[in-house]
Amino acid sequence: MNLIRIGAMSAGLAVAAGAFGAHGLKDKVDAAGLEVWKTGAHYHLAHALALLLVAALAGQVELKVTQTVGKLFLAGQVIFAGSLYLLAVTGIKWLGAITPLGGVCFLLGWGYLALSAGKLKA
């Protein structure tokens, strides 16, 4: 898994999603929907940058750590931000029940990275 490429592409998509929400959805969804979209874009971008951080740590931590954390952050982006994007444009309320699963992926990724910090390579 090439985390630099994935992180950079994800960051670009997050910027595009933010711009689309601010400009393309302004007259299409209500204020609550725009706020939901904005939250998705915020976490999407934050965790795209986190993927780049994990890529920068390659060589400092075990490969298993970077791969696992990267997969958790990517899954979190898809589930958390993806469900919020869909909720914002469709109004389908049950999508909000999926969002916390993405949040759990983020939390697991950060937790695993924190626990692994004690095992940094010398």
UniProtKB/TrEMBL annotation:
The keyword tRNA-binding does not apply. Its main location: membrane. InterPro entries: DUF423. It is found in: Membrane. The chain crosses the membrane at residues 45-63, 70-88, 94-115. It is a multi-pass membrane protein. This is Uncharacterized membrane protein YgdD (TMEM256/DUF423 family).
